[in-house]
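JOB MANIFEST
job_type = single_chain_structure
chain_count = 1
residues = 413
[input]
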Amino acid sequence: MYVTPDGGSTWSQQILDFGGAALVANGDPVVTFGPKPDGGGFSYADGARAYFAALAAAPDFGPNQMLIAVSHSDDNGVTWSDPVVATTRDNPVNFNDRLAIHADANPSSPFFGHLYVSWTLFKGSNFTAEPIVAARSTDGGLTFGKPRQLTASNNNATGGRQSSQIGTAPDGTVFVFWHGALFNQDAILGARSTDGGVSFARPFLVSFLNDLANPLPGTNFRNNSGPAADIDAAGAIYVVWPEYTSGHGVVKLGKSTDAGETWTTATAADVATRTAFFPAVAVSGRNVFIGFNAIDDKPVGTAPGAGVVRYDAYYVISIDSGDAFGAPVKISTISSDPDATIRNDLTSQFIGDYNGAAASPDGSFWFSWTDTRNGATCAAIDAFRTGGAKPNIYDLCPANLGNSDIFVGHLVP
């Protein structure tokens, strides 16, 4: 965990103890901020409570099981609580994945201070069922209720589900969005709860879509067409996702002003000769910010390797609640080569699964992305991926192989 006390100028590292031998942190970290408990309710009178959630392995329960654990901090990230498991432990072969977390931060909401977590639950030994589920905490993350299943489980009938996002409207309605399928077509779907996460209505359609090619030509890192979402102070919902059309990827925006009953969709960002991926969205007033990566377009069949493609971080912004967006602006000052990243088994590149965006109370925006400008490629690994011998990376590769960093951009409109 990294914390900045001065608006992003400097950062300090904090180590979260995930329970020693009982739990081992295992990726997919997410954060959110909400009010502190004040003895029966919640208040910002003494500042905010920060929540950190991540996947966690439980060696004592099942060597392959992934749980979701949540810690909190009441002193701006200096110290953190012991983690609390938000998922059930009733089946040692269940695998929880790709979580999202959100605290209801609106003092006028009837569920002010409630904490919500959503994720994909891979069920059973062969993972052929993967519903979207959600759980809530009403006591500041000290305990979590039983997870609620929002979708069907049968993938053969409805397609898989992944990349959930969760948030709340000003009236306390909880919304969850995810990438799934409807009528055997890929789609962005959602579900709502009007009782603070106790129950959810049937899923609704945001939009059908054409998935990004996975992997994109000239790469072999995994990507996805999962959504990101935010809700403004008037209750308007903004959902973004990447979409692939005729060998090129753009960022699409879906907007609803009636609690998800109807949606308008439009292209929000399109970088010439590059494919957009991993978008994130944040809203402040009438300003809608979308940050994303974009990578060089290459013909289908282009093999990956060092220097084949490069990507950068971009943003677009709307000043009229998403009705129109300006031209894409490049944030990164040096392009990244995905071939400088590696999976642990060396078989492919790996730059993560998503980026992050947030709006500050002052109306500015933050965007974070994985950047490889300080990394190096390795010819021996590229040869291994095309049929050569698996190399000893310590002898044959540069020391900064795989050095992918988290970069943060700050925009003041």
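[summary]
The two ends are 28 Å apart (CA to CA).
The mean pLDDT is 93.
exit_status = 0
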